[in-house]
Model the fold of this input.
Amino acid sequence: MKKARVLIVDDEEAFANNIAKLIAKRGYDIKAVYNGQSALQALDEDDFDVIVLDLKMPGLDGLATLKIIKRKKPSVEVIILTGHGSMESGIDGIEMGAFDFIMKPVRFDELHDKIRQAYQRKLVHEENSHNFMGNKE
Amino acid sequence: MKCGPVIAEEPSMTMVKSNHLSNGEKQKAGHYSRLYRKFVFLTLISSLVPLLLVGWGIYIYYSNFSKERLKTSFQNQVESHRKIIELFLKERTHDLQLVALNHTLEEIKKQPTLMRILDSINREGQYFTDLGIINDQGKHLVYIGPYDLMDKNYSQTFWFKEVMKKGFFVSDMFTGFRSSPHIIIAFLRIEGEKRWIIRASIETEYLRSLVENVKIGATGEVYLLNQTGILQTSPRFGGRIMDKAPLPIEQFREDSGIRTLNVNGGNPEGSHSKQIVAHAWLKDPHWLLVVKQGYDEAFHDVNHANRATLLFLHLSLLGIIIITAIITRTMVKTIKNRDRESEALNKQLIQAGKLASLGELSAGVAHEINNPLAIILMENQIIRDTVEEFPELDEAFQEQLMDSLSQIDSQVQRCNLITHNLLRFSRRTVSQIEAVNINAFLNEVIQLMTNRAKGMGVQFITNLETNLEPIFSDPSQLQQVFLNLINNAIDAHEGKPYGSITINTQADLQKQGVKIMVADTGSGIPQENLERIFDPFFTTKPVGKGTGLGLSISYSLVNKLGGDMSVQSVVGQGTQFILFLPFNRPGDSEIHSEEHPEQPSFQNAEKEPIQ
Done:
C-alpha cells in the first residue's frame, strides 16, 4: 500500500511535532507546519492525502485555510482539531468539506483512527472517480 | 441527590448563615409592620384631622347658633306675652277713665246708670266683675256686683290711700273683703268740690287664662309675680296663686333677660333640674312675667341634632379607621408580594449571572488548558512508543512506567471531562428544536437508566398524563437534563437497600406548558445545601466523583429552552425536582430560520454523560 502523506497544521509546535513523530513511526509521510500560510505553501510544494488542521491559529485561521485548501485540492481529506468551545466552527468546517472534527485534547489512538479513516475515504473516492473515468473511456 | 460531606463549607459557616437568614426574615417582618403602622398613621392623620376639625367646628357653631335662636324665641315669647297683658290692663284702665270723665257724680250715683255703664264696658267681654262708686270718705255710694260690699268702708285700705294720692291705681292680686284673689282698678274724679272714686275689680279668670293657658312642651310654664315675689297666677307646676314663688326674684332686677337656673322643686322632672328662664317686667302694675322650661326639653331638638351629628361624625371616624386598616393591609400585602417576586427574580438573575460569568471564564480557561493537555497526551504516547523500542529495559521498570502512563492518561481524561463540562456553559449551541412527545421521550430516558437503577435497587414509577400535547424543544439537551437528574436521583439512594424514582407529567394550560416532576426516595438535601444546589462546582459527592456542574448546566439548559426548574427536599425522605417546559419555546420562529436543514449528525462527540 502506498504511504499516506499527512500534513499537520498547528500553532502549538510541541503538539504538531509530537504528532509528526508518532505518525511517522506508524509508517506515514509526515510534515508539520505551524500556521496557515505555511500549510498552503506546503500544499503547493507537495501532494497530501490527509491534513490535520487546527482551527485556532494566529494569522490565517483554520477555517480560512480550509476554504483555500478545498479550492486548491478538493480531493484532500481534512480533519479539524478544535477545542470544545468552538464546536460550531467544527460544524462549519464539515459544511465546508472537512472529513470530520476532533476535540482537543485527543488521545493519539483516536487521532490515528481518524487519519486512517480519512485516508480510506480518500482512496475510495479516488478509486470511484477512477472507475467512473474508466467507464467513460 | 446525595448528601455526602459538604465540600468547601464548614458546618459552623452553615450555622452562621442560617442564623443570619432567620434574623433577616424577622427584620423583614418588622419592616413590613413598621410600614403598615406608618401608612395607617399618616392616612389617619391626613383624613381624620380635617374631618374632626370640620365636624367639631360645625357641631360647636351649630349648637351655639341653635341655642341662641332658641333663646331669642323664648325672649320674643316673653315680650309678646308682656305686651298682651299690658295691653289688656291698659284697655281696662282706659275704660274706667272714660266712664269717670264722662259722668258726673249725680249721674253715676243712680243704680240704673251704673248698671248700664257696666254692661257697656263689658260689651266686648266679661272683663269686669263689679263696679262701685266710692266717696272721699271711703264709703260705697253705689255698687253693682255679685258681692255684698255696700257697707264696707275702704278708707283704711292701701289702694284707697294710693288712689287718693296718685289719682288712679291698679292693684296686685289680693283677697280683700271678698276673700278670693282679684285685681282692682280705681280712678279718682275731681268734680269741682266733689271728689269720688270709681272702682272696678277685674275678672281675674280672664287675666289668668291669658297666662296660665300658655303651655310650652311638657315642662314649660308661664306665670306672673308681683314685686315681692308673690304669684299672681297659678303656675302649671307647684305653687298656687298668692303663694311665694319658688324663684329668687332678687336676681331679676333688669328689665328683661334670659338665663339658665338650677331650680329645686316646682317642676315635673324631680327635685332638681336645670331650667331656662326668660323674664320681663310689666310697667303698670310692676309685675314680673316669667316663661320657663326644662333646659333638656327646650334644647331637646338641638341636642338631638347635635347627638346625631356627633354620632355620624364618630361613625365616619370608625369607618375611615376600618377602611384605612383594610386598604393599608392590602397595600402592604401587595408590596410584600411584589418584593418577594422581585427577590425571586433577583435570585434568578444572580444565578443566571453566575452561570454567564462562569461561562466566559471557563471558556477561556478550558481553551488554555486543552492545548497543554493535548500535548501531555501526545508526550505520553511518545514515551510508550519509545519504551516499546527498548525491550531490554527492566521488566519491573517497564511495568511501573506503563502504570504511570495510564494513570497520566486517565487523569488527563478527568481534566478533559471538567473542561468539557465547563465549556457547555459558554457554547452557543444552535438548539435543534423539534416536536417532542414528552411522555415517550421520558420513557426512552428511563429505558437508558433502568440497568443502572436496578443495580442500586431503585425502581422507576411513572405517572404520565395521557394525551399530552407535544412540546417544541431540543431533545438532546432535554436528554442531558433528565439523564443528569435521574443519575443524581439514583446516587441519592447510596446506602439504602431500595428506593424509587417517580416521574410525573402534567399539562399546565395556564402557563402553556408541561410540568415534569422527578421525585426520589433518597437521602434528601439539607436546607443550606438546597440554596446552592444550582451553583456551579457545588457538589456533595466525594472528590473526583462529580464536577458540581451537572445541575447548573441542566438549569441553564432548561432556562435556555424557555422553562424553569426548582427543587424541594426533605432530609431523609427524598428530593423532588419540578421542571416546567413551555409548549412553544419563546422566540421560536427565529431559531427555526437559523436552522440548517442539511446539518449532519455529529452528536457522537457529545455523548459523554455529565455528572
The first helix of chain B runs from residue 11 to 102. The longest strand of chain B covers residues 272-281. The interface with chain A takes residues 363, 366-367, 370-371, 373-382, 385, 409, 412, 415-416, 419-420, 423-424, 426-430, 596, 599-600, 602, 605 of chain B (CB under 8 Å). Chain B has 13 helices and 16 strands.
